[in-house]
Amino acid sequence: MGERVRVTCYAGYKADERPTAFIWRDRTFTVTGVLDRWYDRDGNYFMVQVEDGGRHLLRHDLNEDLWELVLLREE
Questions:
Q1: How far apart are CA 44 and CA 1, in angstroms?
Q2: Domain boundaries, the chain
Q3: Burial level of 46, CB count in 10 A (0-12/13-18/19+)?
Q4: Alpha-carbon span 20 to 11, nearest angstrom
Q5: Which of 5, 17, 18 is nearest to 70 (CA)?
Q6: Burial of 67 by CB count in 10 Å (0-12 exposed, 13-18 middle, 19+ buried)?
Q7: What is the pLDDT of residues 24-54, one digit of tens each?
Q8: What are phi and psi of 12, to 5 degrees?
Q9: Cα separations (Å) of 40 from 23, 33, 73, 75?
Q10: In what residue span(s) does the DUF6504 domain sit (predicted)?
Q11: Helices (H), strands (E): how many in the chain?
C-alpha cells in the first residue's frame, strides 16, 4: 500500500496512540499536529502535519505491527 517508515509515538492510555515523528528515506519528520485520524479493522490512519508544513498520511498496520507512509504531500 505504502512505503514502510519508522515511527516514534506518544503512548498515553494505549500504545502507539499518535505519531510524534517518522523517518522516511533517512529523513526525520517531526509531527507538529494530527489533522485527522480514523480507524478500521486492520489499521489506524493519521493525517499529520510536519514542521516544514507538509501533510502526510501514515498508516499503522495492526496485523503486522508496522507503519507505512501512504501519502506524501509537501507544501
A1: 14
A2: 3-73
A3: buried
A4: 10
A5: 5
A6: buried
A7: 999 999 999 999 999 999 999 999 999 999 9
A8: -95, -110
A9: 24, 21, 23, 28
A10: 4-42
A11: 0, 6
